[in-house]
Every structure is written in structure tokens, then in C-alpha cells.
Amino acid sequence: MYLQLNSISKVFKETKKETLQDISLEVAKGEFICIVGPSGCGKSTLLNLVAGLDTPTSGTISLDGQPVTGPGADRVVMFQEAALYPWLNVMENVLFGLDAAGYPKARQLEIAEKYLKMVQLWHYKDYPIHQISGGMKQRTALARALALDSKLLLMDEPFSALDKQTIHILRAELEGIWEKTKKTILYVTHSVEEAIYFADRVVVMAENPGQIKQIIPIRFARPRNIEAPEFTALRKQILNEVSLSARKSVADEFDGPEVNQA
Predict the structure, then answer these.
(1) 3 state SS of 2
(2) Helix-strand-coil percent breakdown of the chain, rounded to 5?
(3) How far from chain centre, in Å, is Cα 252?
(4) Which of 19, 42, 59, 162 has CB atoms 3.0–4.6 Å from 7's, for a disulfide?
(5) Same domain, 50 and 163
């Protein structure tokens, strides 16, 4: 498998809390995997471990046969906030990583043009960051991430701060880009609808500690209709799984052992 997580656990020293327990997952090259689960189940922690921004307490992670021991150019992260450089314009933000990676100037410009056109921002390439909308900022961040041509794209709720109309537009654009590039994507989202819309497989997590509860293959043809009966039925099924985990977590935290024994 392209990406392998073997028995990953994470305990934070400050709280002594086991955030993740025995997470094992295999991802094929070109797969689009979405991770959903209740708040606090460790979705973002898991993404940070794969990114190399943190290290697991136990277990191993490998990508394309190489162990993940820290951040690397083979993995690029796109966060909820676009995290753009405000003193640079749209084009300069995309060029920044390419320049740091040592690409020749002519090649930098060629790559930046390709991906800015792909995210439909070519005509805005000279705009200062403060003059573009939130959706355009996320498109810029996506172009910057794609331009680096990493082996794995890690996305942590990249559209959650945007309005619903913009979200629908960006979902369609991201799906189209994935169809063209077949980039391997690990995507964390709180939206079950979004997970079913994008994923080849949806990883459903439970919490306290964070574990994989279920992995659900999505076999609907693309593009997917979020109003189709089979789509809404699966959405309801997964939401029920997430809600059950969330309710159990609340009961464990606030009801105490006597209530749990009842």
C-alpha cells in the first residue's frame, strides 16, 4: 500500500490522555480518503502525525515505502485557514514554495500558471491577498499545495469556515481537480455529506480514545448527487454512527461510572 499506518497510538505528555489508540489504515495510491468522527476523536491529531508535525507514541507510518519521521516535501498540508502570506499577491504565494524547493524561475512560472488556471484564479494572479474572498484564498492555498506535486495531500477541514454556496462551488472544483490529477488525498472533515461526496472510502472514528470504528467504501458514481435517496440514506447511517460515539463520550465524561454500570 502507498500510505500505511500501523498500530498508531498517541498520548500527550501534558494531559496523559490517550488521544489515539491502535490506528491502522492502508491507503492506495490515488485514493481519496475522508475521516469523520465526533469532536475530540483525534482526526486532526492523526493528520498531524501523517504530516510529520508530531510523532506517535507508538506505531509506525510510511509513505511509498519510506518511514515518516518528520515533515517532508512528499506531504503537503492544507488547513482550515488558508495560511497565506499577506504581503505577497496570489501568484507570489504559489511561487513561494516552488522557489524554496529550488525550481528554476521559468519552471516556477509555468507550474504556477498551470495550477492557478486549474483553480480558476489566473485572472486574479496579481491581486493582493486582502482583496480576495475567503473562497479565493482557499483556492490560492489549494493551487500552492498542488504546485508542489507532493505524493500526499493532507486536508484538514479546508472549507468549513466558508459559506454554504462557496463550499458547494469548491467541492465541485476539488473533485474535478482530483479527477484530473489522481492525487492521493487524506481529508479530515466534520461534514458527513462532504465525506460521502468526495471519498472512495470514509473512515468513521470513535473517541475516548480515538479509534477507527468503521471504514465504509463509497461506490456511488461520480459526480455524486447529495439529494439522491441512496446518498441521503448513507449520510443518515454514518451520522447515526458518529452521534452514538459522541453520546457515549458525553456519558463517560459527565455521568461517571455509576451511571455507566446502570
Answers:
(1) coil
(2) 40, 25, 35
(3) 28
(4) 59
(5) yes
**What is the SS3 assignment for 100?**
helix
Q: Could you write out the three-class secondary structure of 107-168?
A: HHHHHHHHHHHHCCCHHHCCCEHHHCCHHHHHHHHHHHHHHCCCCEEEEECCCCCCCHHHHH
Range(s) of the domain holding residue 104: 86-149
166 and 240 co-located in one domain: yes
Residue 79 counted as domain residue:
no
Q: 15-57 pLDDT, tens per residue?
A: 888 999 999 999 999 999 999 999 889 999 999 999 999 999 9
195, 214 Cβ separation under 8 angstroms = no
213: nearest Cα among 18, 20, 5, 6: 20
Q: How many domains does the chain have?
A: 2
- Is 261 a domain residue? no
pLDDT of residue 80: 83
Average pLDDT across the chain, whole number: 91
Q: What angle do CA 179, 168, 74 make, to 5 degrees?
A: 45
Domain for residue 260, yes or no?
no
- 97 and 216, same structural domain? no
Please, are residues 94 and 116 in contact by the beta-carbon 8 Å criterion? yes
Task: Calculate the dihedral angle through the C-alpha atoms of 243, 244, 245, 248, rounding to the nearest 10 degrees.
Answer: 120
